[in-house]
Amino acid sequence: MRPVITLLTDFGYDSYFVPSMKGVILSLNPEAMIVDITHAIPQFNVRKAAFTLWASYKYFPRGTIHVVVVDPGVGTSRRALVIRSRNYYFVGPDNGVLMMAAGDDGVVEVRSIESGDFMRPVVTSTFHGRDIFAPVAAYLSLGLDPSLLGPRVTDPVVLPGIGGSVSRGVASSVIIYIDHFGNAYTGIRANDLEVLGLDYGDELRINIPRRNVDLRVRFLRSYGYAGEGEALALINSEGFLELSINRGSFASRYDVKEGDEVTLSVIK
């Protein structure tokens, strides 16, 4: 099987940044299969990049090398990392963007990328995606032992965990992710529903204080069980309690943003 290298960045689709990285990879390993996860991460949004990687990494073939460049600390003292997990490699900055996915798969070792032998001859202070991460990924795809890249790291940066407070009838969390359709993911998971006491058909009171949102919605299995334009709650494909509008955008209608606090109360 051809080695797979994925790219996930906040570079957008209208600049030379992504093709430059691909050129570096293919110059070192013309057999590499490069897959774009996305380059539309909002600029500098490390948490959204981390969630996007977590939601997608596991569907790639074993041995895939995931490269993430959402790196507001580029050129500073922040470390460059390669992480070997049970089934994958992750390459990128030490700002927490890799650890949600790598930790989910099971971290085997973390290395600081320090050897210049596996970087471009000239490493600029503003484009480590091209000058460090892309060549390292290419060398890994050729079978490089990560131990040659640099010393072990025992304290990689880890972002605050996803979750919330759940008790009988009441849960609180934040909006952890808003997708392309404007669906708002809370940190409440499917396995919290028994504690919460929430069943399909129940009503939920949704309160988002910072947005002056206070409404009632039904908890349903999918969007089509609600009327067109009706707000609802459901468990989405990633196992999170999601706030949605059938054929509409919950985020746009209620001006909801990632990070907004939300309280959910079950109405029986």
Q: How would you summarize what this structure contains?
A:
Residues 175-263 form the S-adenosyl-l-methionine hydroxide adenosyltransferase C-terminal domain. This protein is α+β, with helices and mostly antiparallel strands and 268 residues long. Helices cover 20% and strands 31% of the residues.
Would you write up a description of this structure?
With about 270 residues, the chain is of the alpha+beta class. It folds into two domains: about 5-150, Rossmann fold (3-Layer(aba) Sandwich); about 165-265, Beta Barrel (Elongation Factor Tu (Ef-tu), domain 3). About 20% of the residues lie in helices and about 30% in strands. It has helices spanning about 15-30, 45-55, 100-105, 130-140, 195, 250-255, and strands at about 5-10, 35-40, 65-70, 80-85, 90-95, 105-110, 165, 170-180, 185-190, 205-210, 215-220, 230-235, 240-245, 260-265. It has a seven-stranded mixed β-barrel with strand order 8-9-13-12-11-10-14. A hairpin with a 4-residue loop joins strand 10 and strand 11. Helix 1 packs parallel to helix 4 (about 130-140) and helix 2 (about 45-55) packs parallel to helix 3 (about 100-105). The radius of gyration is 21 Å and the shape is elongated. The mean pLDDT is about 95. Belongs to the SAM hydrolase / SAM-dependent halogenase family. Keywords: S-adenosyl-L-methionine. InterPro entries: SAM_HAT_C, SAM_HAT_N, SAM_OH_AdoTrfase, SAM_OH_AdoTrfase_C_sf, SAM_OH_AdoTrfase_N_sf.
